[in-house]
Automatic annotation (TrEMBL):
Keyword field contains Oxidoreductase: yes
Occurrences of domain FAD-dependent oxidoreductase 2 FAD-binding (ranges): 7-438
Family stated for the protein in its record: Belongs to the FAD-dependent oxidoreductase 2 family. FRD/SDH subfamily.
This protein's name: Flavocytochrome c
Any one Gene Ontology molecular-function term assigned to this protein's record: steroid dehydrogenase activity, acting on the CH-CH group of donors
Originating species: Ureibacillus yapensis
Length: 465
């Protein structure tokens, strides 16, 4: 027997939950299939940031931001390789989605500057609080059914050529469910698929693998069978900032470089402008001798530690023994086994550039993107953290339009098939703005649900930027 639903959603992370809630509160009958034994997926491994502009939280902190500025930054960070219409759709719906999340009980406790921000716009959440809140709201609608440990195996079309039937397995049995209006793929990327990573990103062989357990690319394969196109595969990059001991359960991550640290290789030499996207930094770090690099900073920068923050809680990493400390640069160099002379010269040249207002080596003029002023590294004691690149999320995948419809190779919608979240390509382009991953999951999850079951989404054309 095949049970009928208005919408079937595959994956229960941020995108899937926002889609389910949007559809559920609009009286759609929704089935959410999640192959893992718990909801949340890789959203629970996120750095806690969601990128929004013009919010009450920004205004409370006297931060002036706008949708237009957000769009400009995203296109600039993406080096113009992003699909502009997707970025504009994000911009059109971002503030409404922020307010919607707040209204539903998601808590944002701070706003911080991070990669790609010209204004601090990283609105911080506690992932488990956000995921649990959205799940509970879905249940409250009375319209959303969750089935866990249900692995979707194939999608099937009806006689009219529309994706309408989902075949899945649970407890060793095979089930079928029918989606009257649409199937939404929100089941993540392929950061844990060695087969797909070898095919599409062999340059990342040395990167840690710490993505979500279920992110093996099965959603992309489900759509491929029906002619789906993909985007952004040439721009697959790892995420820089992890200690080598990091894992999915223990992230051990710090972006001290966005607070003023420099990054050196095992020769004690800088190799990159530390203010650029941590995706681009990660790519350069993997080219260094033995793939080893270090963040180097002083006490003034250490004082920027933010308790509990996923990226900036340096004191916690120090307490865990993951950060080295020394009274002099010579001593620090000996601890991390880089040439004393080189490290001292590197720091001296960098400090001289700060004093002169010009970083002649790499042109660093900000802390991150266009925000903040670089700082000298001169106040003892000094600190170092060995840092590596990790494959945390793939940020490449299915081609979609601004209504979240999955497209074929001719940019035509595949009827009945929608996608949102990490599984989608085309949005980020060649770079990545911190917070835009969770941001696009929430925004396009809602768009997909409305496109499929509630009302057509209309995107403003030629949004001024």
């Amino acid at each position: 027997m095949t049970e009928d639903y208005s919408v079937i959603i595959v994956g229960a992370g941020m995108a899937g939950l926002c889609a389910a809630l949007e559809a559920g509160i609009n009286n759609a009958k929704v089935l959410v299939l999640e192959k893992e034994p718990a909801i949340g997926g890789s959203s629970l491994l996120s750095g806690r940031f969601m990128a929004f502009a013009g919010t009450d939280l920004q205004k409370k902190n006297n931060l002036i931001d706008s949708t237009e500025q957000l769009i400009r930054d995203m296109l600039e960070v993406g080096q113009g390789k992003n699909e502009k219409h997707l970025v504009e759709a994000y911009g059109q719906h971002q503030l409404d989605t922020y307010n919607w999340l707040v209204d539903k009980g998601v808590e944002f406790d701070a706003v911080r500057a991070a990669s790609g921000h010209s204004v601090p716009r990283g609105h911080t959440i506690i992932p488990i609080q956000a995921i649990t809140t959205l799940y509970n709201k879905c249940i409250e609608t009375g319209n959303v059914t969750f089935t866990l440990e249900a692995s979707v195996k194939r999608l099937r079309k009806n006689t009219e050529g529309r994706i309408s039937v989902v075949m899945y397995e649970k407890d060793g049995l095979e089930y079928f469910a029918k989606a009257i209006h649409g199937v939404l793929l929100t089941c993540g990327g392929f950061s844990k698929s060695e087969e797909m990573l070898q095919h599409f990103a062999p340059q990342l062989n040395a990167a840690l693998r710490i993505g979500g357990k279920g992110n093996v690319g099965d959603g992309i394969k489900l759509a491929w069978e029906h002619g789906a196109w993909v985007r952004d595969l040439p721009y697959l990059q790892g995420t820089y900032g992890f200690h080598p001991t990091a894992s999915g359960e223990k992230k051990s991550q710090a972006h001290v470089f966005y607070k003023g640290a420099i990054i050196v290789n095992k020769l004690g030499r800088r190799f990159v402008n530390e203010s650029i996207s941590y995706k681009l930094i990660g790519t350069e770090a993997l080219k260094q001798p033995d793939n080893i690099s270090y963040q180097i900073w002083d006490q003034n920068i250490m004082n920027e530690s933010v308790p509990g923050d996923a990226l900036y809680d340096f004191d916690n990493l120090f307490a865990l023994g993951l950060i080295e400390k020394a009274d002099t640069l010579e001593e620090l160099a000996n601890i991390i086994k880089v040439p004393e002379k080189n490290l001292k010269e590197t720091v001296s040249q960098y400090n001289q550039g700060i004093q002169n207002g010009t970083d002649k080596e790499f042109g660093r003029s900000t802390l991150t993107h266009t925000f903040g002023e670089p700082k000298s590294i001169s106040q003892a004691p000094f600190y170092a953290m060995v840092t590596t690149t990790a494959m945390l999320a793939t940020y490449a995948g299915l081609a979609v339009n601004a209504a979240a419809q999955v497209l074929n190779a001719f940019d035509e919608p595949i009827e009945g098939l929608y996608a949102a979240g990490e599984i989608v390509g085309g949005f980020h382009g060649a770079g990545y703005m911190t917070g835009s991953s969770l941001g696009k999951a929430a925004i396009f999850g809602r768009i997909a649900a409305r496109s499929a079951s509630v009302a057509p989404i209309r995107i403003k054309e030629n949004l001024s930027i």
